[in-house]
Each structure stands twice: as C-alpha cells, then as structure tokens.
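PROTOCOL LOG
Step 1. Enter all chains and additional molecules of the complex.
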Amino acid sequence: DTEVTQTPKHLVMGMTNKKSLKCEQHMGHRAMYWYKQKAKKPPELMFVYSYEKLSINESVPSRFSPECPNSSLLNLHLHALQPEDSALYLCASSQTPGTGRNTEAFFGQGTRLTVV
Amino acid sequence: AQKVTQAQTEISVVEKEDVTLDCVYETRDTTYYLFWYKQPPSGELVFLIRRNSFDEQNEISGRYSWNFQKSTSSFNFTITASQVVDSAVYFCALSEARAGNNRKLIWGLGTSLAVNP
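Step 2. Run joint prediction.
Step 3. Record the structure below.
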C-alpha cells in the first residue's frame, strides 16, 4: 500500500466550482509535489514544496493554488477550471537533499478529476 | 538538454515470456539519477529502482533486472517470466543531481506492457 494518501479518488466539478485535493504522507519527507497526468502521457510537474515552502511553480495557471499547511499535508485548491484541466492529479513526496543528492519520489494513487 | 527516450510505445507478450523495456537517455551532467516507475491501471506510480551515474552495477530484484550502460546511455529493464500482473505502463526517468531544490524528473513517454494469459 502506498504511504502517500490522496483524497478524493474521483472528483467531478463544474467550471464555477471550488474544490480542493488533499495529500498526506507520514514518511517524514520534506519535499512534496503535485503532478498532472493526461491519458497516455507521462506526469507533468506542477509544483514542488521543500520544507513547506514553494520552491518550484512550473508556470501553472492561477486557477490552481497549492498549499502546504505542514510537513505532512499538501493541498491543491481548484477554482474556475476548464474542461481541459480534466486529468489524473498525482501527489508525491521524497526526502529533501541537502547537497543535491536525489532520492526517489513516492506517489499517491491520484485523484481523477473531471471538469464539466 | 536532458531527454529520455522509450522507443517502444506498446509491447504485448504471452505470460512467462521474458521482455525487455528499453530506455535511452541524454544528459550533459556527469552526475545524474535514473529511475523506473510502474503505473498499473489503478493510476499509482510505483517506484521500482533508482540508479546513480556512478554505479554501473546491474541489479536484480526477483523477476526484475536492470542493465545500466553509460557507454550507450541506456538503462534497460527486463522482466523474466512475465505475469499478467506485470501489465502496466512503465516509465523511465532522469534527474539532475545539482545542489539546491531542483527536483525535476525528465520522463520518457512510457511503454505500455500487456501480458496476456
């Protein structure tokens, strides 16, 4: 079983709705990520948090708003999405390197989002 | 520029066959990391292996084995005696090993493996 838990598993929302995706990990990891994955494509990095601070934003539209309340939790707030935003949203976590050593990321099962 | 190429888009085998998934990478860094992930239909990306550029030893884990060859910039993955449960999309990925917070993975497009009974 994955140690990264995402809720909800499935979400259908209208273009005027506001919703949030949640991610939780208890592995003591200090880097957390949001990825977006379209069908038959590799994941695309959206955001990276390191020590609860946003360190990478891959030019994601402002209708996606990440939040890292503490070292175990990561949220993605959604507002005014478009149908093309429908995708699998994956959360991941990894140890944070101090000197560039890279470690593997562990992924959650994802939230399948449909925007109608 | 960094790039990962998985030339095989789809592979179909019969159970118990051996299958090799190819991964070729490009990077100008001397220190880098390579990864393989498995994505079953459920959606979760399952970490399989991490290899750093200084460790060219091949690795075996049960029915899985990996062949890392810097001379050909390849990091191929072999499943021996494939099983239906191996059916998934397999991604190869590359990352830099720079100090700081660069956490980006460069992903291949994935190879969809179907193991038929």
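Step 4. Note key features.
Residues 52 and 111 of chain B are 22 Å apart (CA to CA).
The mean pLDDT of chain B is 92.
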